[in-house]
Amino acid sequence: MALIVQKFGGTSVGSPERIAQVAEKIAGFRAAGDEVVVVVSAMSGETNRLLALAQQVAHKPSLREMDVMIATGEQVTIALLSMALNAQGVPAVSFTGAQIPIVTDSEHGKARILSIDETAVREQLNAGNVVVVAGFQGVDEQGNITTLGRGGSDTTAVALAAALQADECQIYTDVDGVYTTDPRVVPRAQRLERITFEEMLEMASLGSKILQLRSVEFAGKYNVPLRVLHSFKEGPGTLITTDDHEDSMEQPIISGIAFNRDEAKLTIRGVPDTPGVAFKILGPISAANIDIDMIVQNVAQDNTTDFTFTVGNVDYDKAIDVLKATAQDIGAGDVSGTTSIAKVSIVGVGMRSHPGVASTMFEALAKENINIQMISTSEIRVSVVIDEKYVELAVRALHTAFGLDAPNP
Ligand code: ADP
Ligand code: ASP
Ligand code: MG
User: Fold this and answer.
1) Does residue 304's CB lie within 6 angstroms of at least one atom of ligand 1?
2) Would 163 disulfide with which of 28, 116, 146, 267, CB 3.0-4.6 Å?
3) With a 6 A CB cut-off, is 208 part of the ligand 1 pocket?
4) 48: Cβ below 6 Å to ligand 1?
5) Minimal CA–CA distance to 116: which of 82, 155, 65, 150?
6) All domains of the chain in start order, with CATH
């Protein structure tokens, strides 16, 4: 008998029929003797629908009220799934985040989990129930409803698995595992049998939306065995593991390719090249609570330099305003920017032992005539910023160049 935490994403609970199918699947685990805690997302499209609704009422809605509203999506699906389980003869009971309680900080819209009281869940499991928990939501110490950021149900599931010391956390979704890249963009992408936490962290932070970044951080920190699987197709899925198989002959150099279209690039020209200039430019950006990603400072000419950096698309307008004010303050030249860039990254622990990976990447992009605007690297990753319109071409070219394409059927 195992204790399993299972999470079903939006498309997996997107209709009454699918909810019944999910219930059937859970019933199967129960029949095999497992104890099951289930985390569900809102029905697909529901969170977006609610967000759009708020925009029709207020231009800048209160973040507290936004959380009260978007937490309802998951409250619907926990009740529906519990009803479906009961209808199939499986005793089940639902819990919202606040009922557990899953206590978070008060950062509405991107709250972090502080603690989970597993007493109620254990009691219900001991009483023979399947426990169905609302993903994505918690409650702060003052009793306000909070949410964990888009894709946050993954994190709810992993955090519950950690708190309960579950035998496995299974993330059921609409693909049958983690692929070498998004299979929607590269049809010849291949499912990975396993991927290391380190690689999965990079993939998630570089824009692969298959798992929320925080869920991977949590799983790595608390050693939660984590697997991504298809909700309605049998198969082994992908195991996220600590074992990096570095000595294995089959270890590919590159495990995956991630891309992110949600970035913007800003440039400030004619900056007086004096000590402290990076701080003068980026200090105000950080003070405005804007996360900076890549940074490039050009070699100075005539005692002035150009400075370019990237931020998330959502922060672009704010960042341009801050940068224009800074340009005035420090006597720099013009400020420009664009949101039509994308970041494409190759990820793999195999890079550590294989020099020349970056040049293979640059060569593949050059062959497609794709101009690289910025570059950044870490031990197991190389990222480039390119024009957004070439992102799919770039990802496909890299997928082929690194030998990741599935053989032709
Ligand atoms: P859910 O609603 O179940 O949480 P998501 O839409 O958040 O599902 O995540 C699943 C989607 O992630 C897939 O449909 C796929 O298009 C996308 N995806 C992006 N990168 C990858 C990857 N490397 N492997 C598999 N899927 C990926
Ligand atoms: N419903 C939330 C979202 O759409 C959380 C989730 O699906 O994980 O982002
Ligand atoms: Mg998701």
Assistant:
1) no
2) 116
3) yes
4) no
5) 155
6) 3-174 (3.40.1160.10)
